[in-house]
Design a protein that fits this description.
Structural class: mainly alpha
Largest sheet: none
Number of strands: 0
Radius of gyration: 21 Å
Helix content: 55-70%
Number of helices: 6
Strand content: under 5%
Order of helices and strands: HHHHHH
Distance between the termini: 32 Å
Length: about 190
């Protein structure tokens, strides 16, 4: 964290960059995600709330009801703080500008994006293959319209959020300080 702050002061960081860095490294949220178990729970909760919200967005395509939109709004109220915790867990790894990150963080960001790219590409290929098979078996365009829109939206959401989930799951526990650092005794 010290390297990040030092890097932010050495570069041409703007006031916005400094504010984002301070926000993403706020010590008040650390207690919520201090352990690997807590981070996993937050990621699972975020995935679940995202699924509820996404269902609330696409269900009106098939059902003429307002209740899915109520589920969307309720999910959004929970989703926003969970997203903030994901960003806090990763110290803004995916949200901060590259000029504010140090070399280790830039490498981690690249690793996370590469892994997320591989996974989301596989999901996209599987979705495309399944729609192609459905079309070959005689499903008409009318029958595939809603599933295609739903799958397309789901893949888009996965592509957007998968790097955040992967980065949050890759965070290591910080070592506990046994005692505060003290200068060596000069005698």
């Amino acid at each position: 964290m010290t390297a990040t702050r030092t890097n932010a002061t050495r570069t041409n960081a703007t006031r916005y960059d400094a504010w984002m860095l301070k926000t993403m490294n706020d010590a008040r949220t650390k207690r919520y995600h201090a352990t690997r178990r807590a981070r996993r729970r937050i990621v699972v909760a975020h995935i679940g709330v995202t699924a509820v919200g996404a269902a609330g967005m696409v269900t009106p395509l098939a059902v003429a009801s307002r209740w899915p939109l109520v589920a969307l709004v309720a999910a959004l109220v929970v989703w926003i703080p969970l997203m903030g915790l994901l960003n806090s867990m990763t110290r803004g790894l995916l949200e901060l500008r590259p000029r504010v990150l140090d070399e280790r963080q830039l490498a981690e960001r690249g690793t996370v994006h590469a892994l997320a790219y591989r996974i989301s590409s596989s999901v996209m290929a599987a979705a495309l293959l399944s729609f192609y098979v459905a079309w070959l078996t005689g499903a008409g365009v009318d029958a595939l319209a809603v599933p295609l829109a739903t799958a397309g939206f789901g893949v888009l959401v996965l592509h957007w959020l998968l790097p955040h989930w992967i980065a949050a799951l890759r965070v290591q526990d910080e070592p506990e300080d046994d005692e505060p650092w003290a200068a060596p005794d000069p005698t």
